[in-house]
Amino acid sequence: MPADAVENRTLSGAAWWRPTSLAVSIVGVSVLRYATNGPSQTFLHELALRLYYIPILVGAYWYGVPGGLVVAFVSSIAYVNRVSEIVHTLDRGRLAEVVVFHLIGVSVGMLASAQRRVARRYQTAADTLEKANVTLRESHEQIRRMDRLSTLGEVATGLAHEIRHPLASIGGALEIIQARAVAGSPEAEFSHLATREVQRLDLLVWEFLRYARPHAPELRSMSLDEVVEQAVTLLRVEADRAGVGLDVESHDGPIKVSIDPLQIEQVLLNVLLNAIQATPSGGRVLVRERLDGTEACIDVIDEGHGINSEHLVSIFNPFFTTREKGTGLGLAIAHGIVMSHDGRLEVVQTSTRGTWFRVCLPLRTSGAAAASQVAAISS
After folding, report:
1. Do residue 352 and residue 316 come from a single domain?
2. Are residues 298 and 325 in the same domain?
3. What order do you get walking across the sheet with 295-301 strand by strand?
4. What pLDDT does residue 48 have?
5. Do the domain assignments include residue 136?
6. What's CA 141's distance to the chain center, in Å?
7. Bridge partners of residue 345, in order along the sequence
């Protein structure tokens, strides 16, 4: 049974059980009182009279001051039999007892209400602390990524000279071998294979350098639809080759954003390429533009097998990949670019039926354009 249903059943049960138990306890005390009204049972009779305090205390604790007053009033009626009797005979003892009933109901009700307020404040503080802990963990993860970035930046220049230059020399030598090798010979086959591996290593080093030494975005105002259309156009052939359809849902009106178009295009290329590679032949990838408050968002939804829950915390880390030939830098680079734009790159949802990535960028347009976009959202 769902937790909400259990909670609702518990609350509805308490709604009738509590007043019923209070009424039963008052009736029980009254029965005990009249059953011990003999001269030989004076002690039990006086004790029964004092038992009225129990439902008053419980009612005040459960329902606060109103509950305490109601239970005190009902207990007073049961206690004095007839109100006219106590008024006419001026039985000060019973009158004082009735006053004490109501004072107990009020005081305990006030204490119970104060205790609930303290508990609510404590719960609010606990929730705030939990949110702060989540934010702190996220900040810590960001700091770890920045530390990795800083370390990579320190070794990037040396790595470029130590690896890319020898790779270029090897590639040049392989080109000479290929040019002199007879077509179809083992030399031609192996030199071609070696050339492909050199190119793959060079691409890996280039991606590493691009991640380790990112440049600040050169912002300019433009339509988000242009960037999305360019990225989709570039990957249309790749999608067709994989047998995957690419659907685009543009926003009704133009969405103007201040971005570095080349960098955001790179982000979309990385996310879209992952979506195409994750989607089986015959499936579709949806690219959707929309406005969300003060952000422009691009949703990329594939029909793949989803991301394992244990991998979600690591997908934006550099060099994390589940593909044999993946570098693990595509999403890391994309995440860094979006962060440099003060935006967000996140996984909204993932399951065995697909994964939903979202890129959100702030609407940093000027004056009337920004106002008109926000007005369009709220209308």
Report:
1. yes
2. yes
3. 245-249, 284-292, 295-301, 354-362, 344-351
4. 76
5. no
6. 16
7. 359
Q: pLDDT band for 161, please (50, 70, 90 cuts).
A: low
What SS3 class is residue 368?
A: helix
Does residue 367 register a pLDDT over 50?
Answer: no
What pTM was estimated for this model as a whole? 0.49
**Residue type, position 278, single letter:** A
Helix (H, G, I), strand (E, B) or coil at 344: strand
**Residue 237 burial (CB count, 10 A):** 9
Tokens standing for residue 57: 């205390």
pLDDT at residue 151 in the model: 64
Determine the Cα–Cα distance for residues 49 and 52; give it in Å rounded to an integer.
Answer: 6
Q: Do 248 and 374 belong to one domain? A: yes
Rounded mean pLDDT, 198-218: 73
Whether residues 118 and 175 share a domain: the answer is no
- Quick check: is 170 in a domain? yes
Tell me the pLDDT tens digit for each residue of 76-108: 887 776 444 555 555 667 777 788 888 888 888
Range of weakest confidence among 3-7, 48-52, 243-247, 316-320: 3-7
Say whether 183 sits in a helix, a strand or coil.
coil
Same domain, 361 and 239: yes
Residue 98 lies in a domain: yes
pLDDT in tens, 18-27: 888 888 888 8
Tell me the residue range of the domain where 329 lies.
220-378
Number of domains comprising the chain: 3
In terms of Cβ atoms closer than 10 Å to its own Cβ (0-12, 13-18, 19+), residue 64 is buried
Please name the amino acid found at residue 50: R
Structure tokens at 198: 């050199």
CATH number of the domain residue 159 falls in: 1.10.287
